[in-house]
Design brief:
The complex is a heterodimer of chains A (about 260) and B (about 400).
Chain A: H1 2-40, E1 55-60, H2 70-78, E2 94-101, E3 107-113, H3 121-125, E4 131-133, E5 139-141, H4 151-155, E6 161-163, E7 182-184, H5 189-194, H6 203-210, E8 216-220, H7 227-234, E9 250-253
Parallel strand pairs in A: 1-9
Antiparallel strand pairs in A: 1-8, 2-3, 4-5, 6-7
Chain B: E1 6-7, H1 14-40, H2 55-70, H3 72-78, H4 89-109, H5 119-122, H6 129-152, H7 160-183, H8 196-222, H9 229-259, H10 261-272, H11 276-298, H12 307-333, E2 343-348, H13 363-386, E3 390-391
Antiparallel strand pairs in B: 1-3
Helix pairs in contact in B: 1-13, 2-4, 2-7, 2-8, 2-12, 2-13, 3-4, 3-7, 4-6, 4-8, 4-13, 6-7, 7-8, 8-9, 8-12, 9-10, 9-11, 10-11, 11-12
The chains are: A alpha+beta (about 260), B mainly alpha (about 400).
């Protein structure tokens, strides 16, 4: 009898242990599941991105006002990016730069962000495929697969990527970021995925339009009816560091 | 040539215990730094969004490059049939394994998400030279491990030559891969160069041999084993050739970068600027790492068979460290060309218009790097204690300088 009790007790203990183990394991999985859920939250119909579309942008530097940082501010608000304790470690998805032409000395102000290359060096060098290009041309980072080697940052010709040096708090549900991962502009993919047929503009473009500058046109390069397609056909534009042959999705006019 | 007798270190002396404690302490510092950074993130490092790779990478790359170079001594004996070097093969192979372990550990522990490392294998990106490198490291352990096994297990002697040749070929591929991590960075004019691969191989010859000489001389001195002048003179001559060759590649690299208008600004700044990188290049790499060692080794009676060889080896390691510091960090420190060669960035809140980016490594990064070095020599020390890697004597009378490998 006592032996039976002992066996029962052992079984009970084992069951308790297994339950506790499963509960503990679940606790460990919850953050990951949550993050996956958060990252997919914006995709409304679950369909995959299509290569029939290619999202891009034309930036008219003639309209970009020097000193205006509306696009940068809007981006920081959209992704809740806050300054780091060390300024050099602050995350940036978009920045304003002023450039001077070496021959004419003409100065121009322009926003600089991920150029969403057709042949992105960051994607080529990423050892795990965390740095990836969607079928619709958006280059982004899968933070769950990112090991934080920063090789993509070394490879990016535009220095468009940032490393998350510290714990991130108050993240936006549609754009989770993780300490130890790399991140960059994704053309506000959460807005695009809400309605790929007629997406909202990225936050920077909206902000530029709100200011009345209208220096940024966003859209589907492949769509003959899109404003972007029409503008690209009408105006001569260039890609930055064109010698690299990356065929960027972001183009500039006026430089 | 007499039959070589291999004996473990006794490992009971005060000097052994001191070294063991020292290296274990260094490794512990590295572990502490890792756990701290894992908790706090890289915020507590001097690295930032401009200097993406910092001091840990300098340590890691130097150790990884030295690892393949340290295998040279074994390869000379086995692949190139030079019998004099044959007794050194076990030391050479074990040192190379230990150096690679130290380097890879630093590289992995500096990752932002080291616990995601399994993705390197489960979602392998075949276009990434970094991903290929991660395959090359275990391959090196495997090939060199098998090579070491064939040296020590007489029943496997038939495979000795093949294993040695395979390890030799693998090490060349590995160091090419390390060089190409930088050489294939097409967007960075300071790095992108095919010469990076052979340059890293030649640097591996010199720094690997320097690590070998230090290990050999220190071990034989502290264990009171005879180490003859014949062997040391050969190693000295080899070191002279390797230092000169590494310097030649460095000169060609900088000269071609300076010649190209696309990278001339960067090179001018590196070669003639006022930053710490210029000082490290000229004083560290050229004077301390090249000229003084060459003088020590070439001036008659100074570098015959004494501590001058040891000193030269130490200086070569310091010089190589400076070289990698300048190559890895200095090149990042100069603002990257982001628009096009016809434009100059004159204002940016992201440092694009800075004269150069400042990098001040934190103590955590120093500790992490020293941890890799400590782990390396802890492995070397205990390898020598546990396994029969060390010939009982390397005295002149026990070695035949003209011997051909069996």
């Amino acid at each position: 009898m006592s032996e039976l009790n002992e066996n029962q007790q052992t079984t009970t203990n084992r069951r308790t242990f297994l339950k506790a183990g499963v509960a503990t394991a679940s606790m460990g999985l919850i953050p990951g599941v949550n993050l996956i859920g958060l990252s997919q939250a914006a995709i409304t119909d679950g369909s995959a991105a299509s290569d029939k579309q290619r999202w891009g942008m034309l930036i008219d530097t003639n309209k970009c006002e020097s000193g205006c940082t509306a696009c940068v501010d809007a981006c920081n608000k959209e992704f809740n990016i806050k300054p780091s304790k060390k300024p050099s470690q602050t995350v940036q998805f978009i920045r304003k730069v002023t450039v001077r032409h070496k021959l004419t000395k003409v100065e121009t102000s322009l926003p600089l962000m991920c150029q969403h290359c057709e042949n992105p060096p960051c994607v080529d060098v990423c050892p795990t495929g965390a740095s990836m290009k969607r079928a619709d041309g958006i280059v982004k980072v899968d933070m769950h697969r990112c090991i934080g080697c920063r090789y993509c940052m070394m490879a990016c010709p535009y220095k468009a990527r940032s490393f998350i040096h510290e714990e991130v708090t108050e993240q936006m549900a549609y754009a989770p970021r993780g300490k130890g991962s790399v991140d960059s502009c994704n053309l506000c993919v959460h807005r695009i995925d809400e309605n790929r047929e007629n997406p909202r503009n990225p936050a920077c473009v909206d902000a530029c339009n709100s200011k009345g500058h209208k220096a940024m046109i966003f859209g589907d390069i492949n769509d003959l009816k899109s404003n972007l397609n029409k503008a690209l056909k009408k105006h001569q534009s260039r890609e930055l560091r064109s010698e690299l042959g990356l065929n960027t999705g972001v183009r500039y006019r006026g430089i | 040539m007499k039959k070589v007798r291999y004996l473990e270190l006794e490992g009971k002396s005060a000097s052994f215990n001191f070294l063991a404690a020292l290296f274990a302490g260094m490794a512990a510092l590295g572990a502490w730094a890792f756990f701290h950074l894992e908790h706090s993130g890289h915020a507590d490092t001097g690295m930032n969004n401009q200097i993406v790779w910092g001091l840990p990478h300098v340590f890691a790359i130097m150790l990884i490059v030295a690892a393949s170079g340290a295998l040279n001594l074994a390869s000379i004996g086995t692949v190139f049939n030079k019998g004099l070097y044959k007794p050194l093969a076990r030391i050479s192979a074990w040192l190379s394994i230990s150096l690679l372990m130290g380097g890879v550990i630093v590289l992995v522990l500096d990752l932002g998400n080291p616990f995601h490392i399994d993705y390197m294998f489960t979602s392998f990106n075949e276009t990434s030279i970094f991903a290929w490198n991660i395959l090359l490291y275990p391959g090196f352990f495997l090939f060199t491990g098998i090579y070491l096994w064939t040296m020590m297990d007489t029943s496997k002697r038939n495979y000795y030559k093949s294993a040695g040749t395979a390890a030799f070929i693998w090490r060349l591929i590995l160091t090419s891969g390390t060089g190409l991590i930088f050489g294939l960075l097409v967007g960075r004019i300071g790095f992108n160069a095919a010469i990076m691969a052979p340059m890293f191989i030649v640097v591996s010859f010199s720094v690997g041999l320097a690590f070998f000489i230090i290990t050999l001389m220190a071990t034989y001195k502290w264990s009171n084993r005879p180490l003859g002048c014949v062997l040391l003179k050969r190693l000295k001559n080899l070191l002279v050739i390797f230092i000169a060759a590494a310097f030649y590649f460095a000169v060609i690299f900088h000269l071609t970068k300076y010649y190209s208008m696309a990278s001339q600004d960067l090179e001018s700044w590196l070669l003639f600027g006022d930053s710490v990188h210029t000082k490290l290049l000229w004083i560290g790499q050229v004077v301390i790492g090249t000229l003084i060692p060459l003088a020590l080794l070439l001036i008659p009676r100074v570098g015959e068979c004494n501590t001058a060889i040891f000193s030269a080896a130490v200086l070569v390691i310091i010089g190589t460290f400076c070289q990698f510091f300048v190559t890895i960090i200095g090149t990042q420190a100069f603002p990257q060309q982001v628009i096009g060669s016809d434009y100059q960035v004159i204002a940016s809140k992201f440092g694009d218009a800075d004269p150069y980016h400042v990098y001040s490594p934190s103590s955590w990064e120093v500790m992490l790097g020293l941890g890799g070095l400590g782990l390396t020599f802890l492995m070397v020390l205990y390898g020598f204690k546990i396994m029969r890697f060390l010939p009982e004597s390397l005295a002149d009378k026990d070695l035949d300088p003209h011997a051909k490998s069996a």
